[in-house]
Amino acid sequence: MATHTLSKSQAKDLRELALHFYALKDALRLELLVLLASHECTVNELAAGLHKSQPLVSWHLRRLRAAGIVKIRRAGREVYCSLDREALAQHQQAFLDLIRQA
């Protein structure tokens, strides 16, 4: 059996990829992504659309944002959320590259 050691850069990339996929493990987070796939929404719109409390939706959005899946912009007191499609594409490509190398 061959042994393979990872460089620090590769290990960092794997941790980032794991964080990305871990953020997708929750059904409510996936529902948020489905709503955000069509257009930018406020946190209150997302909460109303999912029939969930605003604090619960905000909590899940923080996890998605930390994983680079959702981005936000502020306009006064409103917080607008949207998919970070570029980051999603980068993570998808990194995953495909990873399994091709195996």
Order of helices and strands: HHEHHEEH
Overall form: elongated
Report the major sheet: 3 strands, antiparallel
Share of residues in helices: 55-70%
CATH superfamily: Winged helix-like DNA-binding domain superfamily/Winged helix DNA-binding domain
Task: Give the number of helices.
Answer: 5
- Given as residue ranges, the uncertain stretches (5+ residues, pLDDT < 50) are none
Number of domains: 1
Question: In what range is the share of β-strand residues?
Answer: 5-15%
Structural class: alpha+beta
State the separation between the terminal residues, measured CA to CA.
Answer: 14 Å
Level-2 CATH architecture: Orthogonal Bundle
Radius of gyration, CA atoms, in whole angstroms: 16 Å
Highest-level CATH class: Mainly Alpha
